[in-house]
C-alpha cells in the first residue's frame, strides 16, 4: 500500500513538472497551438454551447493568424470546463482531475462554467494544423471534445 502511494506521488510530480499548469506562453505549445489572444486583435466571434456532456459544435474551422473570441455557454445542468490545447496536454489535464478531483485548477486559459453561465476565451491561432478543445472533468472528457482546424492563409 505504501509502495502504491509512493508511485502515485511520483506520477503526480512528473505531471506537475510537465507544464500542465503553466502559462502556455512558457510552454512548448506556443507556435503550433497558438496562445491566449488579445482583445484588440479579435477578428471573429465563435459561439460554443456545452450540454451534458457534449460541445456544440464539435468542429470549428479558423485561419492561420486569426484571433477568435469564443463565447462559451453552459446550457447543461452540470458544471463544465473548457480547455484548449494539444491532445496530449488535454489528456494530462483530464488525468490530473481524475487523481485530484478537489484540486483547484488555474490554467490561464481555462474556463470553468456553472450551469447557465457564459464566459469568453480569446485565442490566437499561430500556425495551420489542428488544435483540440475539451472539458477535462472526470466522466466528461471522453465525449466532451472538439477539434479546431486551422487552415493555411
Ligand atoms: Cu463537462
Describe it.
The chain is α+β, with helices and mostly antiparallel strands and 153 residues long. The chain has one domain: Immunoglobulin-like (Sandwich), CATH 2.60.40. Helices cover 18% and strands 36% of the residues. The chain has 2 helices and 10 strands; from the N terminus they run H-E-E-E-E-E-E-H-E-E-E-E. It has helices at 2-16, 87-99, and strands spanning 35-36, 44-51, 54-56, 59-63, 67-74, 80-85, 111-113, 118-124, 129-134, 145-151. It has a 5-stranded mixed beta sheet with strand order 1-8-5-2-3, with no helix packed on it. The longest helix has 15 residues, at 2-16. The protein is globular. It starts with a helix and ends with a strand. The model is unreliable at 10-30 (pLDDT under 50). The structure holds copper (II) ion (CU). Residues 53, 80, 135, 137, 140, 144 line the site of copper (II) ion.
Shape: globular
- Discrete helix count: 2
Helix content: 10-25%
- Please name the fourth-level CATH homologous superfamily: Cupredoxins -  blue copper proteins
Summed over residues and divided by their number, the pLDDT gives a mean of 85
If classified by CATH, what would the architecture be? Sandwich
- Main sheet: strand order: 1-8-5-2-3
Proportion of residues in extended strands: 35-45%
State Rg.
16 Å
Structurally, the number of domains stands at 1
- Would you tell me the structural class of the helices and strands? alpha+beta
Largest sheet: 5 strands, mixed
- Distinct bound molecules: copper (II) ion
Order of helices and strands: HEEEEEEHEEEE
CATH C-level category: Mainly Beta
Report low-confidence residues grouped into runs of 5 or more.
10-30
